[in-house]
Structure formats: structure tokens, C-alpha cells
Amino acid sequence: MSDTSEVTEGTRETVDLVAFDPQGNVILGMVHTEPWGEDAGLDALQERVNVYLAYWDSGQLAADFPESAWKPVMIRLYVTTQPDEEAEEFIGKLEEGLKGHGVGFEFHLLEA
């Protein structure tokens, strides 16, 4: 993660990663390693996105990282395998939903 000036790791119940990129965005990084094509995996991903959204929306992010206040927030999803068609559609809906909350979204496939 060479594009970050500060990185703090969390837990599954909170946030995997909080970083600040050179453009001034707050990056909430999420690592997803569960198999695609299973409803349980997509449900778990939706739950985690909701936790990330609540972390930001509740003001807890700003309380934990005062320098994040009033900065654009982006959830960056890191995955280990290419999503199948159903997962790609789901991710597209997530992106649109987050945009409605003023939160950006990026998807990155981690290379082995």
C-alpha cells in the first residue's frame, strides 16, 4: 500500500484498514477472501459494508482519526479471486448504494 501515509488495521467486526491517500481521501479497506457464488458470501459482504458505513456515518471514524473529518471517504474492496457474474452485479449495486450515501467505492483484485 505505497499510496498511504498512515495505516491502521482493525478487526472483522470493525474495519480491516484505514488509510489516507495522497489525494486526501480516507480509504476504508476491506479484504474479502470468501468464495463467490454463494449467497452466504454475498450476505457476509453486505453485512461488512454496512458495518463500514455505520463506522463512518456514526462519527466513530472521525473520533478515531480526527484528521479524517470532512474528507471524502472511499470503501476499497480487495478480493483474492475474480467475482462471478452474480457477484459482479452485487458489487455494482453496492457501488450505487454507497454513492447515494456520499461514499466512494473501488474494487481491486489482489494478484498472487
TrEMBL record:
InterPro entries, per database record: DUF6572 (IPR046702)
The name this protein goes by in its record: DUF6572 domain-containing protein
Organism the protein comes from: Granulicella cerasi
UniProt lineage: Bacteria, Pseudomonadati, Acidobacteriota, Terriglobia, Terriglobales
